[in-house]
Design a protein that fits this description.
It contains 14 helices and 17 strands. It has helices at about 5-25, 30-55, 65-85, 115-125, 130-145, 175, 180-185, 210-225, 225-245, 250-255, 265-285, 290-305, 315, 340-355, and strands spanning about 1-5, 60-65, 100-105, 110, 145-150, 155, 195, 200-205, 265, 325-330, 335, 355-360, 360-365, 380-385, 390-395, 400-405, 410-415. A hairpin with a 2-residue loop joins β12 (about 355-360) and β13 (about 360-365).
Length: about 425
């Protein structure tokens, strides 16, 4: 494989770090020290690559790298990724979506954010979860706080009450008293850092936007308060972050009530969930999972599908049910019409429901997810546009089903008395 010298060096450093820890990853017995060392080495490899490219302002000459070495690195990387996914499994069986990483000089501290729908979709699509476990995740998801029974589908994250404006930026009396500098400044009517409001509540000055602003204010106070500033600096910076918790700020998901905010159903994510459940269903077939697991995944697939807009009445959906919309807030109906990403996933899942599966350049038919209710009770006419752009008609027989794929008509027929067979009609009529 040809690659630039910079990429080759990054590959070598990364491969060495991953291969060293691979045996421990597979044994699931990875110490915190090992995780820290691996993260540091991977970060340093990326940093070396970035500095080399920036320094040269271009890539250097090409070198050859054995394909086997590239494949080995990817295998080791997948082992690390699989380990990471398993480490993020919650006690309820679902998965953490986002972690807050606090890098110390010799350690890593990890805090968890609340559960999120996209975290479950990501874990289920990773290929690192067995079919039976995937069914467990989905069943737990339906019992979770993310499920909105009124629309029979899921919010992006559990709804929760937000504190009112005056409930924010509050410093407790104990926190205030723990930093003598604050009392001294307030007694001198110096509210450049902290002030006391009319209700006796201590608050940080509203002009402070971040730690940089606070640091600048402390520097300004140093000529007046001397060594007390340095004695209070670290405690005050830590208090500022405890009060505002900036590192856990998630934007609109924690502050808004529409546009993918609190209580909101984001329809594209629901269609992504539908697709990943279908992928797990077919994976269960391919891997030879037991019948109970396959049936569970099949039922869960249609339960997710039931919540999509096209299964609702116009009154329920608040729009034409077949039209794609971006989101449904808690306080309203479907909002923001347009060709959203959900269209792509629903086209893919519909083709999958009809059993069309492409593998190694060949089309196969696997109709395990197709329901008997799809077949017509009596003969009907099916009109379609053929590959030449001409409208054609054919008769769908009793207990039949017709659709086009790449503008080629396909007709299925239920017949318990006949052996399975495929009949192909060529363009010359034979």
């Amino acid at each position: 494989v040809s690659m630039s010298r910079e990429v080759s060096e990054w590959l070598g450093e990364t491969a060495a770090a991953l291969s060293e820890v691979r045996p421990q990853l597979e044994g699931r017995a990875v110490s915190a020290e090992t995780r820290y060392r691996l993260l540091a080495r991977l970060g340093e490899a990326a940093s070396h690559y970035r500095h080399a490219v920036y320094r040269n302002e271009t890539f250097s000459d090409m070198v050859q790298q054995p394909v086997a070495q590239v494949n080995d690195m990817l295998d080791d990387a997948l082992a690390a990724i699989d380990h990471s996914i398993q480490q993020n499994r919650r006690e309820d069986g679902m998965y953490h979506a986002y972690n807050l990483l606090d890098l110390k000089s010799e350690s890593i501290e990890v805090e968890r954010l609340y559960a999120m729908l996209e975290g479950q979709v990501a874990a289920l699509s990773s290929g690192a979860i067995a079919p039976a476990q995937a069914a467990d995740v989905l069943e737990t998801l339906f019992e979770s706080d993310m499920y909105r029974a009124d629309v029979r589908t899921f919010m992006l994250y559990p709804d929760r009450p937000l504190p009112g404006f005056l409930e924010k930026n509050r410093i407790s009396a104990a926190q205030f008293e723990s930093i003598p500098l604050l009392r001294k400044m307030v007694e001198r009517s110096d509210d450049s850092i902290v002030l006391r409001d009319e209700d006796g509540c201590y608050r940080f000055n509203a002009d402070l936007c971040n730690l940089g602003d606070l640091t600048a204010r402390l520097d300004d106070a140093a000529p007046v308060h001397g060594d007390e500033v340095e004695q209070a600096r670290q405690s005050l910076l830590a208090l500022y972050e405890r009060v505002f918790n900036h590192k856990a700020f998630t934007g609109r998901s924690g502050t808004m009530f529409g546009y993918e905010g609190l209580g909101c159903v984001y329809w594209h994510m629901i269609s992504k969930l539908l697709l990943v459940v279908q992928e797990n269903f077919f994976a269960a077939l391919t891997e030879g999972a037991d019948e109970e697991t396959r049936n569970r995944l099949g039922r869960l697939y249609y339960r997710v599908r039931e919540g999509l807009g096209f299964n609702k009445t116009p009154d329920e959906y608040g729009a034409f049910p077949t039209d794609p919309y971006s989101n449904t807030p808690k306080h309203s109906r479907a909002q923001q019409p347009g060709m959203t990403g959900m269209v792509k996933e629903e086209v893919l899942t519909r083709v999958g429901e009809l059993g069309v599966r492409v593998s190694e350049g060949a089309v196969n038919f696997e109709m395990a997810l197709l329901r008997a209710g799809e077949f017509v009770a009596s003969p009907q006419t099916f009109r379609f546009l053929d590959v030449d752009g001409q409208w054609q008609e054919l008769t769908v027989p009793e207990s039949g089903l017709a659709f086009t794929w790449c503008q080629v008509p396909f007709v299925y027929r239920l017949d318990d008395s006949a052996e399975s067979a495929v009949k192909v009609t060529l363009s010359d009529g034979s």
